[in-house]
Structure formats: C-alpha cells, structure tokens
Amino acid sequence: MKIIYKKPEPITKTHTTYCPGCPHGIAHRLVAELLEEMNLTKKAVIVWPVGCSVFGYYFIGTDAVEAAHGRACAMATGIKRVHPESFVISYQGDGDLASIGIAETVHAAARGERISVVYINNGNYGMTGGQMAPTTLLGQRTTTTPYGRDAKLNGFPLHVPEMLAAIDGPAYIARAALDSPQHIIQAKKFLKKAFTAQTKDLGFSLVEMISACPTNWKLSPVEAMERIRREVLPVFPIGEFKVAKGVE
Q1: Taking residues 76-104, what's their average pLDDT?
Q2: To 5 degrees, how large is the angle CA 84–CA 13–CA 34?
Q3: Fewer beta carbons below 10 Å: N end or C end of the chain?
Q4: What mean pLDDT, rounded, does the chain reach?
C-alpha cells in the first residue's frame, strides 16, 4: 500500500486536551512536520506558556519549558542566548502574547532575538472561559463583553503582525489561517520561512495563525471555520508583512 500520510516523528502518542474542532492540533502538526523536515527536532526547545496549549510539551516530543503567563518571549530569549545552537520556538495564544505578554513580544522583536514565535489567534481567552482578548472583534460577544465589544469601552482589536513589521529587528512576520486545506498549506510555507530566519541567524520571526474556538464561540467546528472566513479574515487579512533578504 502507498503511504499518503504518516504521523510526524515529533508528535507523541499522547491524547491532546483540546476541545473538539480546535485547530491547535493542526498548528502542532505543522510545527512537528517542519521540525522533522528541517532536521531540527533534536535541537529544538519549545516554550509553552499559560493558555490552552499549556500541556503542549506532552504533545510534541522536544525539549521544552513552561513559561509564566505572557513571559514566553522573554524565556525564549534567555534560552537562545545561553544556548545559541538550539532552535527555540515560543508557542503562544492571543491572550498570552498580545495582552499580558505584549511588552515581552515587542521588545524581543525590537532586539531581533533569534527566536521563532507561533502565535495562535482565536479571538478570546480560550482556557479561562472565553473572556475578551486584545484580538476580539468589534461587536463580538464574550463572557466579559456580553453585549459585544465596544470600541469606546474596550478599544480596537490589536493587529500584532502589522505592528511588529514596523520594527527593525524582525526578519520575518506573517499571518496565516487554519480554516481550510489551502490556507493550512500556506501556513506551513509561512512557518518554514519563519524557521529559516532563525536557522540563518537573520532575526526575530513570528507567524500569526488565525484559529477558531468552537466551544467559546458557541458554534460547531464547521460553523467556526465559516466564521473565520466570513468575519475574522476581513479584519485580520492573510499575508506576509516583512520578509528579510535571505529568508526566501
């Protein structure tokens, strides 16, 4: 029989703790596939922060550390500086990276730290009950915005890639989506460039991945993917925002 797909070597046999229909598993698979294909697994260190992916070290079998909420980029910076031969990934959600951890993220980017950030944006605090996050859309109902996010009260959604692309330190900044096979294939291409930026010592890299949260959105997995295309992507468009020479 012809093998058309096999489990990436870094993926463990542990059952994940994610809700049905959650795209975190897709993002994990993309990370694992590239670690294997780029021969990075044995020297990879993944920083897992507080959030839905808090147990990520059970699911991807690399060296790993747990960071305090929002401090993953700071911890990744320390690891990379002490062990520059390591391949360091920070895997973070929008509540973690864009709220409590925004200072660590921005300054790691400004310093051009040689780390790669996988940034999962599902528009809410998924682990703690679906509260409003910095990326929650205007009008979106959450447990802390029951009548919908109001710009006058809560401000506007934060566009992290666009913000970081204006800083000199990053080598590669992009936004992808996990809602369709076509976009997932594109996400892997973007992520490979982010990893390449680190292997070539070019600077900081980040790929935002637009994801879904069917449980807190109170939608079926199919409906959640449709919402991404209908409501989220018009606000957070897919694309590459900064590509340094040598990343291609």
Answers
A1: 97
A2: 40
A3: N
A4: 96
Cβ proximity of 40 and 92 under 8 Å: no
Domain count for the chain: 1
Cα dihedral value 50, 48, 194, 225, nearest 10: -50
Amino acid 241 reads F
Tens digits of residue pLDDT in 189-203: 999 999 999 999 999
Helix H or strand E segment including 40: none
Show the domain range for 180. 24-243
pLDDT band at residue 5, thresholds of 50, 70 and 90? confident
On whether the CB atoms of residues 115 and 108 are closer than 8 A, the answer is yes
The set of residues, in sequence order, having a beta carbon less than 8 Å from that of 156 and lying 6+ positions away, is 138
The model's pLDDT over 149-184, given as tens digits with 9 standing for 90+, comes to: 999 999 999 999 999 999 999 999 999 999 999 999
7: in domain: no
Q: What are phi and psi of 86, to 5 degrees?
A: -80, 155
Three-state secondary-structure class, residue 85: coil
Determine the Cα–Cα distance for residues 215 and 163; give it in Å rounded to an integer.
Answer: 29
1, part of any domain: no
Question: What is the pLDDT confidence band of residue 15, given thresholds at 50, 70 and 90?
Answer: very high
Longest dimension (CA), the chain: 60
CATH, residue 158? 3.40.50.970
C-alpha span between 14 and 232 (Å, rounded): 31
* Cβ-Cβ contacts under 8 Å for 182 (sequence gap 6 or more): none
Which tokens in the block code for residue 76? 């990744």
